[in-house]
TrEMBL record:
This is Phosphinothricin N-acetyltransferase. Its EC number is 2.3.1.183. Keywords: Acyltransferase, Transferase. Gene3D superfamilies: 3.40.630.30. GO terms for molecular function: phosphinothricin N-acetyltransferase activity. It comes from Caproiciproducens galactitolivorans. The keyword Transmembrane helix does not apply.
C-alpha cells in the first residue's frame, strides 16, 4: 500500500470520508475521548479551521482516503506558537502498513517549514489493555522519536473505564534565543 500512496492537503470536501475513518475510533475505542461522532458539517468546520494555520493532510490509496494527520495549536497563548499538538487516524483495515509513518513524516516536514519546533501528542493510555484500548499509539510515537513528557492518571472515563492520558513530545528543530516567526500553512509551498 505505502508505495503508491499519495499524500495531499485535505479539503472540506473530504469531511465525509475522513469521518468514516474517525467514527470507529469514537464508537469502539478509547483512543479518542470523544463520546459522540461529530456531524459531517462539524468535521468540515474542523478541517477548515485547522487549515487556516496548520497542515491537515490525507493519504490516498487507489482513489480512497486511508488515513489523515494534522496539527493544531498546543495552547492558544502567543508564547506557545512554536509548539503544536499532532493527531493521526488510519482506516482500520490499513493499519500496520507504514502509512502512519509516511503521514507523520510528511506532517513533520510541513511543520518544519512553518518554523514549528515542538511536537506534542496527547495519547490515551491504559495500564491494563482491554477491548477498547491498547498502547499501540504510545509505541508508534516512540518509534517516531517521541518521548513521554507527562502522565495523568485516570483522567478520562469512557466505556465504564477510567483511562490515563500521557503527553509525548518530539523536537524537530533547535530552540534559538530568538525563534523565527511561525508561518501559516497557507503561506507555505509544498509538493508531496
Amino acid at each position: 500500500m505505502e508505495q503508491g500512496t499519495l499524500i495531499r492537503m485535505a479539503t472540506k470536501k473530504d469531511a465525509e470520508e475522513l469521518l468514516d475513518i474517525y467514527s470507529p475510533y469514537v464508537r469502539n475505542t478509547s483512543i479518542t475521548f470523544e463520546y459522540d461522532v461529530p456531524s459531517v458539517a462539524e468535521f468540515s468546520r474542523r478541517i477548515k479551521d485547522t487549515l487556516q494555520m496548520y497542515p491537515y493532510i490525507v493519504a490516498v490509496d487507489e482513489g480512497r482516503i486511508v488515513g489523515y494527520a494534522y496539527a493544531s495549536a498546543f495552547k492558544k497563548r502567543a508564547a506557545y506558537n512554536w509548539a503544536v499538538e499532532t493527531s493521526i487516524y488510519i482506516k482500520q483495515d490499513c493499519r500496520r502498513k507504514g502509512l502512519g509513518k509516511k503521514l507523520y513524516l510528511a506532517l513533520e516536514e510541513l511543520l518544519k517549514r512553518q518554523n514549528i519546533i515542538n511536537l506534542n501528542a496527547c495519547i490515551a493510555y491504559t495500564p491494563v489493555e482491554d477491548a477498547h484500548l491498547n498502547n499501540a499509539s504510545m509505541a508508534f510515537h516512540e518509534h517516531l522519536g517521541y518521548a513521554k513528557a507527562a502522565h495523568f492518571t485516570k483522567c478520562g472515563y469512557k466505556f465504564g473505564t477510567w483511562y490515563d492520558m500521557i503527553w509525548m513530545e518530539k523536537m524537530i528543530g533547535e530552540h534559538p534565543e530568538v525563534p523565527k516567526k511561525v508561518i501559516p500553512i497557507t503561506e507555505i509551498s509544498y509538493d508531496f
